[in-house]
Amino acid sequence: MLLTVSTTHRPAGDLGFLLHKHPDRVQRFEVAAGVAHVMYPEVGDERCTAALVLEVDPVDLVRSARGPAGEGFSLGQYVNDRPYAASSLLAVALGRVFGTAMKGRCDARPELAATAIPLEVHVPVLPCRGGPEFAARLFGPLGWAVAANPIPLDPAFPAWGDSRYVDLRLAGTLRLADALAQLYVLLPVLDDAKHYWVSGDEIDKLVRAGGDWLAAHPERQLITTRYLAHQRGYAAAAEARLAELDDRPDPDEPDERVGRTGHDAGDERLPSLAEQRRAAILGELRAAGAARVVDLGCGEGTLLRALLADSAFTELVGVDVSVSALRRAAARLAEAQRVRLLHGSVTYADDRLAGFDAVVLSEVVEHVDPPRLPALAAAVFGAARPATVLVTTPNAEYNVRWDTLPAGEYRHPDHRFEWTRAGFAAWSEQVAAAHGYAVRHVPVGPVDTEVGAPTQLAVFTRGS
Known about the structure:
This protein is α/β, with parallel strands linked by helices. It has 2 domains: about 200 residues, 2-Layer Sandwich (c-terminal autoproteolytic domain of nucleoporin nup98); about 190 residues, Vaccinia Virus protein VP39 (Rossmann fold), CATH 3.40.50. It is about 30% helix and about 25% strand. The protein has 15 helices and 14 strands. The strands form 2 sheets. A 7-stranded antiparallel beta sheet has the order 2-3-4-1-5-7-6. It has a 7-stranded mixed beta sheet with strand order 10-9-8-11-12-14-13, sandwiched between helices. Its cofactor is Mg(2+).
């Protein structure tokens, strides 16, 4: 099996840093299906190509019980397409060999890992149950230009028609991590087969690899069903988790769990927690006299849309790591002249964000792995260094007031942690002291005498 990834981003040789594989060496990896090799057939400043070659012994897969035993006919283990047709076996090798790149980590070139770069992907033999048009339906909405050319059954006998295989070429401008994650999920979906036993762990793999882009994909249900081998229970569980992710960037829906305690059911609808949070942010920005504001982790642009309603905010910038979220934000804010949308990460310093009056991180920090929080603080308070920083995050103590939230669970499956009031205060004060800011805390939402408010807001003001 063969898959190649090329870039024309200059210097193109930096692809080796992103993939964590040196261009000057051929590397060999033992994987469950056989042996994977990584090599660079093309390396230069203007163009670089990395190739993943997977050598599979289909007979050994059956005899060692690493593959399915039943083939439908007695010669199936000898007569099959596994050695050369891309499938779930290649997807597994992709995750094993390029796992760090798929997570978007690159200590040598962190800014490049967070940047969308021109990419070309070539899979010369790919089973495609649904035809070339199906490949376009899967990859097209993700920003790829798709060329899926059917492979004839036998070039010597054109009358026999085309096989179910295609020669797939993709071209687009994406983060490399996003491209690899999409291939990891969609290769077995196109084949509509898994060459290993599918268990509940596959749900977590799907959500991890597809969380940023699959939630809003128009073929989400079909992708989920095929990826999970048509097991309805698993597919339903995955759909539920992806639906939650789809709602995450858009907090417009009223949060019925907050704001109704102590009021009659006939009262006029109280503001949702999301609405109260936006009102608190706007109030603090106005009090600070901020005119040029960055929404870091802007999602689909809900806060930006609220800021646009006030002409006091003269320049607005939205930054997000999710390309699909930025596309939806662009559609929402298409007519706005005061807004720029940038692709970037909260944990990497970005010169484009320096010199603004304020930076807002609304419900963002809890989505960052704790070891990356010092990098976030350095990027925001050290490099960007605005006059005002606003940070909102859930108050973990308030979770006990929600009967619908099981004990010990976070408010969202993508949260890496949730701070108590003391925990958030300790982090805020440490960051403020390290970077020359003063900090104060503001409760957002109804304040409970025992557990506080559901949302915590820290207001950082830069010292002279």
